[in-house]
């Protein structure tokens, strides 16, 4: 009898222990690849801040509701150190070890391009918020971008230089070792010539040899009216200062990476124009609420990297809801059939490729501030 009572007591304890265990929570695992260290850490910080805000908002509401079930969103962050080899390693870890359903990032095209190849092979959806190089999504069925691409950006800056500003002679200085810089330079040169203009200087450098003094001297000798600098934000301020010190008074034009240039480094860029994805002071609708939430969380304004990354998460969440689960193929199929997602950077819709048809904004640098000039729609 004592033995029987002891067995009942043990059984009761086991049952009690089972009852006290929480139910297994379903989970949507999302990988994030960001340049937290390396040459563009400001981009990495913006990426992580946007990702954490997007994920926290969902989890604070109790998780993502998919087919009447709650899914906790797990964010798996990898630092690619702004390096292609580290990017590949990060993508492989997320895919093979972390079993993510999708990947957000990388941001810079020089890292997004190799990551996209591995995601395509593994059949895992990859959304790059900031990469604009066409090669990132070319001939791929599992890779998407949130930004416009460089073909659109390079052409609109060439048209702006020729038609709006009235310049007939242009020069270009670019990093030939970076896919982003090189492709933008090529597109701008071709488009400016198509307008009827002349590209009187086309100078290159590499990140390993960043001194561009001699290149700028040759540009000055060619006397262009406008100088296009499709380079990263950590390089442009010094290039602009050196150009002015050498007496080069050409109008400076740039591209979307310029949004990361800190206010303290904009002195030599006064009066310059550049194209980008998002103008914080022109936010409306949901973008106003997003701006307020970001400012409350981080006590600063959201950049284009922040806004684009936030939109990438929003699209991914919506695709998971429509897919009814965490299956990568279902998420991919849902992305293709969303029919238009209204994000904080504008309407995003995929039709025949991973490239959305999106507008751009043109900003002018006035007294160190980024001032909205106009919105430009794709033709």
Walk me through this protein's architecture.
With 379 residues, the chain is an alpha/beta fold. It has helices at 2-20, 41-60, 84-97, 109-122, 150-164, 179-195, 213-222, 236-245, 286-298, 304-323, 328-336, and strands at 26-34, 64-66, 69-79, 102-104, 126-128, 143-145, 169-175, 198-205, 226-229, 251-254, 273-276, 341-343, 346-348, 360-366, 369-376. The strands form three sheets. It has a seven-stranded mixed β-sheet with strand order 8-7-9-10-11-14-15, with helices on both faces. It has a six-stranded mixed β-sheet with strand order 2-3-1-4-5-6, sandwiched between helices. 48% of the residues are buried. The model is unreliable at 1-24 (pLDDT under 50).
Instruction: Sketch the major β-sheet.
Output: 7 strands, mixed
Radius of gyration from CA coordinates: 24 Å
Strand order of the largest sheet: 8-7-9-10-11-14-15
Q: How do the SSEs run, as a string of H and E?
A: HEHEEHEHEEHEHEHEHEEHHHEEEE
Helix content: 40-55%
Helix and strand composition category: alpha/beta
Please, how many helices?
11
Which runs of at least 5 residues are low in confidence (pLDDT < 50)? 1-24
The separation of the N and C termini measures 88 Å
Strand content: 15-25%
> Which of globular, elongated, flat, extended, rod-shaped describes the shape?
elongated
Whole-number mean pLDDT: 92
Total E-strand runs? 15
């Amino acid at each position: 009898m004592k033995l029987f009572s002891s067995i009942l007591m043990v059984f009761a304890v086991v049952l009690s222990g089972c009852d006290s265990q929480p139910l297994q929570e379903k989970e949507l695992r999302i990988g994030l690849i960001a340049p937290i260290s390396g040459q563009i850490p400001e981009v990495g910080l913006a990426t992580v801040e946007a990702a954490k805000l997007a994920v926290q908002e969902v989890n604070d509401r109790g998780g993502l509701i998919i087919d009447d079930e709650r899914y906790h969103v797990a964010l798996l962050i990898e630092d690619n150190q702004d390096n292609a080899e580290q990017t590949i390693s990060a993508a492989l870890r997320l895919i093979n070890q972390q079993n993510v359903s999708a990947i957000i990032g990388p941001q810079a095209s020089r890292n997004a391009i190799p990551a996209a190849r591995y995601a395509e092979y593994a059949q895992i959806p990859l959304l790059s918020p900031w990469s604009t190089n066409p090669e990132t999504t070319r001939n791929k069925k599992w890779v998407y971008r949130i930004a416009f691409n460089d073909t659109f950006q390079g052409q609109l800056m060439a048209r702006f230089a020729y038609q709006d500003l009235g310049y007939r002679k242009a020069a270009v200085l670019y990093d030939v070792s970076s896919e982003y810089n090189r492709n933008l330079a090529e597109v701008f040169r071709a488009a400016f010539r198509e307008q009827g203009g002349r590209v009187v200087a086309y100078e290159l450098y590499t990140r390993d040899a960043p001194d561009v003094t001699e290149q700028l001297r040759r540009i000055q000798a060619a006397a262009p009216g406008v100088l296009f600098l499709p380079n990263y934000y950590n390089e442009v301020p010094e290039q602009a200062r050196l150009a002015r010190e050498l007496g080069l008074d050409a109008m400076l034009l740039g591209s979307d990476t310029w949004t990361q240039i800190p206010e303290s480094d904009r002195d030599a860029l006064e009066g310059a124009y550049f194209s980008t994805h998002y103008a914080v002071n022109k936010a409306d609708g949901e973008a106003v609420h997003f701006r307020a939430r970001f400012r409350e969380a981080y006590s600063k304004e959201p950049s284009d990297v922040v806004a684009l990354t936030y939109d990438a998460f929003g699209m991914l969440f919506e695709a998971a809801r429509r897919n009814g689960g965490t299956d990568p193929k279902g998420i991919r199929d849902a992305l293709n059939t969303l029919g238009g997602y209204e994000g904080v950077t504008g309407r995003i819709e995929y039709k025949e490729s991973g490239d959305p048809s999106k507008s751009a904004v043109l900003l002018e640098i006035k007294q160190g501030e980024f001032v909205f000039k106009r919105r430009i729609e794709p033709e």
